[in-house]
Every structure is written in structure tokens, then in C-alpha cells.
Amino acid sequence: MGDWAELQRLLDWITAWAAPAAQLVVRWQGQPVFAGASGWLDPNTRQHPVRRDTLFDLASLTKLFATTAFMVLVEEALVYLEQPVVSVLNAFHGVRPVQPYEDPKQPGAWVTVDTETTEVNAETITFRHLLTHTSGLPAWRPLYRQPTAQAAREMALSTFFAYRPGAHVIYSDIGLILLGLAIERLTGEPLDRAVQRRVTRPLGLSHTRYLPIRYGALSPGEENVAPTELCPWRGYRLVGEVHDENAWRLAGVSAHAGLFSTAEDVAVLGESFLDAQCLRQSTIREMTRLQAQEGGIKRGLGFALWSPDPEASSHPFSQQAFGHTGFTGTSLWIDPTRELVVALLTNEVYRGRRNRRIGTVRLRVHKAIVEVVSRLS
Q1: CB 58 within 8 A of CB 269
Q2: pLDDT digits over 331-370, tens only?
Q3: Cα–Cα–Cα angle for 191, 147, 180, rounded to 5 degrees
Q4: 3-class DSSP state of 328
Q5: 112 - beta bridge partners?
Q6: Which of 87, 182, 99, 181 is nearest to 141 (CA)?
Q7: Distances (CA, A) of 41 to 46, 158, 265, 326
Q8: Between the CA atoms of 259, 261, 264 and 267, what dihedral angle is there, to the nearest 10 degrees?
Q9: How far, in Å, CA of 294 to CA of 307, rounded?
Q10: 2: alpha, beta or left, given left = phi > 0 and alpha = psi -120 to 50?
């Protein structure tokens, strides 16, 4: 017990230095060996302590749930990876220009990726392109500025391209938004129901769900949900309302962001990629093998893969590790060599988007866990 108790002290360090709220769950050799929580839902008054059933905004960890649901559809032979996206989403068609896209981190700035390619035929883009982030689609577009959810969907479906498909690995929210629309078309169900039916319900993830948009502030502790950023254009601290702007405009339900959950539920999802509880082993191997690489960036299907960068959050794990991170301060990493799953949920974005500390937090936590596992092995 002494070895794992170190992790609670580390959690308390996180909530003293980097984020008001945090949860950590570690599963090793098929069993939960640590589950802890720290911090406050109202850090100003230090009221409403974080519990193990407190919900966190998963941000881009949502992509793993949506990708898993899509791969279930692949196993059901409802779709295949090399299938053109246009065959499911008819509006995603035609020759489109390649041009710079809006920089989500610097309002008013634009990102240029490809200055040689002038146009791309959308009908050549496959679902494998979307899942490996090699589609040529821009990383981001300001869908949230559209007046309705339907207008935001249409903007995603009609977007221009940023580079020649396959030439780069550009992490794209737009690609996953399209994947979610395809899941809805293939299943005839809203995305939240499709994810529930194919992922969260079979795995018994009772705390994982999309939350409805309320268009207003909740008081800290009014719900058992970790607050995130004080949104400058919504005008209030976000509590139980999705942080991601584009997911908000899509009524809180998207494949790229929108899910809320606990570290225990997220860790069970991670474990399912070790015990093949939700998908076949052959499917998992395909998802977690190297599919695309640019520099130190390595992608599987939906997953980020181990990075050689010593400052990357995956680096302490074995080179077979795979996982994902979320902008709000969340992460899930699976190390099959060690039979290890680490789910760390925080609301580190609470203090804003400048001088982020989550990179340091993840690296320190992962190093500590690997050290404990090494001592006990």
C-alpha cells in the first residue's frame, strides 16, 4: 500500500499547484490498484470536495469513445476503413480549395500548411484518413460562430482543405466531427445514443455521458461536476457545460468533444483495449499500430502513439503505449507491455489557456506510476 499511497500525495500536489480538481485511476495487470481524488469544486471557498464520482469534461478523450463506436460498426460490416466518406455523407463532395485556416490559439491569425497544392477532391477522403488525421482537413474551423447546430454541421461538411491528403499529420477536430456525423448516418441514431449503445453500456460505464447545454452559469457544487474555464464570450464559469466551443454549438454532442466522465470509467475503457472486451483483438491491433507519422508525431486509428520526445506525456511508458489527451487537462494512456492503464482527469484549464502546467503534471504522474510498477514487478 505504501507504494500506491505516493500517488495520493501526487494528486494533492496537482490540486495545490496546477488544477483545482483531479482524479487518478491506475489499473495494473487487469485490476484497479489506485483510485484517488483531490481538490474542490469551489476552490475559492474550499467547499464541495472532489469525489471519485465527480464528473470531468473529457474534451478530446471523447474521440476515443467515438472512434471505438465507429470501429464496432466496422466489425459489424456496416462500413470499412477504406470507404470514401462521401459514400456515407453525401454533402462531403466536390473539388475544394487548399488554403490557410483560422488559428484556434491566436484569434485573427491563420495557419498555412501547404503552399503547393491548390485543390483537393473531397471524394478521395476515406475514413482511414479521418482516423489517422491525414485527411488534408484543417485542424479547426470556428463552427461556434454559426447561428445553429445545423449550420455548424453544414460548415464542417463544406469546409475547404489545408493540405494534400496523406502529406502531413495534422490533428483535426473537423475530421472527427465528420466521423460523428457518419456514425449517426450509419446507425440512424443520434451520436450520444450510438456511443451509449455500442460503448458505454456494454462496458458498464454508468458515469459517462453527454450533458445538455443549459446556456447559463451553475453555482460551484450545484452539480457534482468539475468547473472549467471562465468563458470570455459566454460570460460565465463553465460548470456542467462543455468547454469546447464547437461542441457547444453542436448542442454539446460531437465525436471530437462533449463527453463527461470519471477517471474510473475512462480507465475501464482503457482496459477494454487490453482484454478485448468491446472490440476484437485484430481490430485493436489495427488501431494501435503505426498508421501515420510526421517527425515525432505517431498516429494509430484514433490513438496517439508513444513519442520519443522525453517531454511527451507518453514517454515514461513502453514504446508500445497508446493513448490520448484532452484540452481541459485530461488523459488516458495504455501500456500493453506493462499491462498498465492510467486515467488522469483534471480541470487544469480552470485558470485559463496561458502558462499551462498540464504537460508537467502528466509527465510527473506517469513517471511516478512507472517507478512504482517497476518496484513491484
Answers
A1: no
A2: 999 999 999 999 999 999 999 999 999 999 999 999 999 9
A3: 20
A4: coil
A5: none
A6: 99
A7: 8, 40, 19, 19
A8: 10
A9: 11
A10: alpha
pLDDT tens digits, one per residue of 161-206 = 999 999 999 999 999 999 999 999 999 999 999 999 999 999 999 9
Q: In whole angstroms, what is the distance from residue 2 CA to residue 265 CA?
A: 25
Give the Å distances, CA to CA, from 167 to 43, 112, 135, 307: 46, 14, 9, 20
- Distance from C-alpha of 147 to C-alpha of 357, rounded to nearest angstrom: 34
From CA 332, how far away is CA 269, in angstroms rounded? 9
C-alpha cell recorded at residue 181: 456525423
Q: Are 147 and 184 in contact (CB under 8 A)?
A: no
> Quick one: angle between helices 263-275 and 62-75, nearest 10?
30
Q: Which residue has the cell 500525495?
A: 9
HEC readout, 152-190? HHHHHHCCCECCCCCCCCCCCHHHHHHHHHHHHHHHCCC
Q: Enumerate residues 6+ apart whose C-beta is below 8 A from 318.
A: 306, 335, 336, 337, 338
Q: Which residues contact 9 (CB under 8 A, 6 or more apart)?
A: none
Which triple of cell numbers denotes residue 173?
477536430
Neighbours of 271 (CB within 10 A): 21
How far apart CA 66 and CA 314 sit, in angstroms, is 22
237-251 in b/e form (b: 16+ CB < 10 A) is bbbbbbbbbbbbbbb
pTM, rounded to two decimals = 0.97
Place of cell 470499412: 80
| CB distance 368 to 376 below 8 Å | no
Angle between helices 173-187 and 149-157 (to 10 degrees): 110
Closest by CA to 22, choosing from 371, 335, 262, is 262
Inter-residue contact 273 to 334 (CB < 8 Å): yes
Task: Tell whether the torsion through CA atoms of 105, 110, 114 and 120 is positive or negative.
Answer: positive
Nearest 5°: the CA angle 146, 229, 354 is: 100
Beta strand 21-28 with 119-121 is unpaired
C-alpha distances (whole Å) from 342 to each of 64, 225, 339, 363, 370 are 14, 21, 10, 12, 10
Q: Name the grid cell of 90.
A: 453525401
